[in-house]
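Hi support team,

I submitted a single chain yesterday and got back a structure, but I'm not sure I'm reading the token output correctly. Could someone confirm the output below corresponds to the sequence I sent? I've pasted both exactly as they appear in my results page.

Thanks,
R.
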Amino acid sequence: MTTVVHLLRHGEVHNPDKILYGRLPNFRLSERGQRQALTVAEAVAGHDLAYVVASPLQRAQETAAPIAAAHRLDIATDDGLIEAGNVFEGQRVAVGDGALRQPKAWPYLLNPFRPSWGEPYVEIAHRMLGAVHRAREKADGREALCVSHQLPIWTLRRFLEAKRLWHDPRHRQCSLASLTSLVYDGEALVEIVYSEPAGTTDPKVTGA
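Hi R., thanks for writing in. Yes, this is the structure output for that exact sequence:
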């Protein structure tokens, strides 16, 4: 029996100050992000979705809304899909700018392999995998769609592909409103399919 769990990164966020918003509340989709969510809803209109679940953060819930509405489903919420914790949230963190230039921030940068500035990669992978298994059980033989965030989705993908979890963020394949689809035969993962129904975006865009 084939079950597909789609991991959808949320759409573009209204973030005029270009801060790392992380888990902060009240960060909504921009107008472009709303269009991206509608584009994905159109792209999956013919899919056999049985379950739509999202991170509790506003941008994820707003991305899930048109998809759930089109399939006449309620949006479930799973904390396992939330953005990664980060000590720099609420600050500007571009290279050579903002928080990273302050000496008090440097101790958090000592171990990029963990990483030392936030939630450990292995913990991200484990909680995301738990959310995926819960969604797979809910869909059972059909399809589920989980709305999450760039770093958690990319970390889980690397975990499932048995790759090291630390990585260069500039090389993530997880554009805004992209789909990373996990195809299961029973409980066995047999394929990972990546698609960009709303087009490609720069992986270095501030936020998640």
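A quick pointer for reading it: DSSP finds four helices and six strands in the chain. Let us know if anything else looks off.

Best,
Support desk
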